[in-house]
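Technical note accompanying the year-one report. For the benefit of new consortium partners, we illustrate the data format agreed upon in the data management plan: each record pairs a sequence with a structure-token string. No post-processing was applied to the example shown here.
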Amino acid sequence: MGLTMIGLIFILSFIGIVVLFVLRAFPLYNEKFQVIAAMNSAASQATESMQEREIAMSFLKSLQATTNIQRFTDRNLKEYVEVVKAGKKGEPKQLRVHFQATNVLAKDLNLMLAFDHSIPIRGIAADGGD
């Protein structure tokens, strides 16, 4: 038949909940994609002569140049970023970034993004570099 006031309230409540969730989840996913872009930039700029710390600083500079993410600083970079040596000779090293980001959804309810991503560092094999 027709849409009653109760039906309208339910529909608007559902739309409001979905909008709230999207507004709270979007910053987490946006941060994830910005970190991946900075990782790709740092990995593509890495050379054989670069030390692990230089690769991590390249990641930090890429991140600071393109985003406003404040999580990573030169002091805490070692906690979140590492260059992982490959298991087999000839395989590339990996740039690994891991962190957790949270955003409040409601009073005692939080959304958490657990980020742990590795990408190969082009041009640096396991037996080269360091």
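Partners are asked to follow this layout when depositing records. Helices lie at 5-45, 52-66, 77-80.
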